[in-house]
Design a protein that fits this description.
By secondary structure, the chain is of the alpha/beta class. The protein has helices at 14-20, 22-25, 36-56, 69-86, 100-111, 130-136, 159-169, 240-276, 304-313, 333-337, 342-346, 359-379, 381-388; strands at residues 2-3, 63-66, 91-95, 115-119, 141-145, 172-176, 195-199, 210-214, 281-283, 294-299, 316-317, 348-352. Helix 7 links the parallel strand 5 and strand 6. The chain is globular, with a radius of gyration of 22 Å. The structure holds pyridoxal-5'-phosphate (PLP).
Length: 395
């Protein structure tokens, strides 16, 4: 099997697994218990928090552990909204290409009377122009939430520029950094980030754990109520093994980010070059401001689902921005936002690789994709119309 769907989730690293093991059957006390055995767990959690904070250049108390990226996004947005509405500020700025954890939370707030401005991204690249963010800020704006890097097309957004604009305007800036964290150096102070969401399973850590960095002057709203864990901001007995695994994976990922990138870029670019040879295809997302492991293409005249199933038959795990996987018939909102029309957006393929993929695997993926695209096109009535000139090619 060739695993090329690391934007969906990653294999856990040995370092992360080993960091978790002692906290399953040896140090299993409840961190809220007063006896020394419980306090051992408490100390482990606080050590993990400090190490994570150190890597982001923030204070340990500014890190809240959550069940993952989705919860961190929800808590960040809801918190900023609650703070805003107290001051009569009910306007939020975001973008058209955010993850559903952000977009659906914003939709919920809209029903409560919040106004949401979604900044449109540049066609093809998916880049957000910081000037558009600046122009959208109003006296009523209580939050700007823009993702660090996009999970589908891999575009890395100009976060420090947007951070500087928000700082000057006195507006809270949250970024969903789930795809970026562990893959590049992030400094929340230097980049003027007030809140940042991270998920461990996107950088070889365990699933179901993540954290929210939130600047200490921001009063968080609870998403989960109950006990006084996480300074009263997130109830529930801490998932200590997962927290320890996440801290170890985060350290490993951040410390190796540059080396991994150096290994990845030639593989990614080889994959892009190979797939570009397929006629009537196009790459999605920015070429230069792109995650080192992301490749995303549209192939005209095919369905993404069929492509994925046939690639699966050839042992390749990949993903498509289109529809049926998510139970809806709409193609990816991200591909539509960068200007792909419905039919083209349906024929998309996302391959997300890591430094563990080999050159042989890349060659195999290119060969297999070429074969599968040709096979599907030969069966497709749409392709017949395109070839015969009954329909015009878009790509
Ligand atoms: C995966 C992902 C999430 C959700 O994270 P979970 O830990 O799976 O809840 C949020 N945002 C982005 C950009 C993601 O890629």
């Amino acid at each position: 099997m060739i695993y090329a769907d690391n934007a969906a989730t990653t294999k856990m690293s040995k370092t992360a697994i080993n960091a978790m093991l002692p906290y399953m059957d040896q140090v299993y006390g409840n961190p809220s218990s007063l006896y020394a055995f419980g306090q051992e767990s408490k100390e482990a959690i606080e050590d993990a928090r400090s190490r994570i904070a150190g890597l982001l250049n923030c204070e340990p108390r500014e890190i809240i552990f959550t069940s993952g990226g989705s919860e961190a996004d929800n808590q960040a947005i809801i918190s900023a909204a609650r703070l805003g509405e107290k001051k009569g500020k009910k306007h939020i700025i975001s973008s058209t290409i955010e993850h559903h954890a952000v977009l659906h939370t914003l939709n919920k707030l809209k029903k409560e009377g919040f106004e949401v401005t979604l900044i449109e991204v540049e066609k093809e690249t998916g880049l957000i122009n910081p000037e558009d963010v600046k122009a959208a800020i109003k006296p009523e704006t209580c939050l700007v939430t823009i993702m660090y890097a996009n999970n589908e097309i891999g575009t890395i957004e100009p976060i420090s520029e947007i951070g500087a604009i928000c700082k000057e305007a006195g507006v809270i800036f949250h970024t969903d950094a789930v795809q970026a964290a562990g893959h590049m150096k992030i400094d929340v102070k230097a980049e003027n980030i007030d809140m940042l969401s991270v998920s461990a399973h996107k950088f070889h850590g365990p699933k179901g754990i993540g954290f929210l960095y939130s600047k200490k002057n921001i009063n968080l709203t609870n998403i989960i109520d109950g006990g006084a864990q996480e300074r009263g901001k997130r109830a529930g007995t801490e998932n200590i093994p997962a927290i320890m695994g996440m801290a170890a994976a985060f350290e490993e990922a951040v410390n190796n980010a540059e080396a991994n990138k150096a290994k990845l870029l030639p593989l990614r670019d080889k994959l892009i070059a190979g797939l570009s040879e397929i006629p009537h295809s196009v790459i999605n997302g920015s070429i230069d401001k792109r995650l080192p492991g992301n490749v995303n293409f549209c192939f005209e005249g095919i369905e993404g689902e069929s492509l994925l199933l046939l690639l699966d038959d050839k042992g390749i795990c990949a993903s498509s921005g289109s529809a049926c996987t998510s139970g809806s018939l709409d193609p990816s909102h991200v591909l539509l936002a960068i200007g792909r029309i419905h039919d083209v957006a349906h024929g998309s393929l996302r391959l997300s690789i890591t430094e563990e993929n080999t050159e042989e695997e890349i060659d195999y993926i290119v060969k297999a994709t070429k074969e599968v695209v040709e096979y599907l096109r030969n069966m497709s009535p749409v392709w017949r119309d395109l070839i015969s000139g009954k329909r015009e090619f878009i790509l």
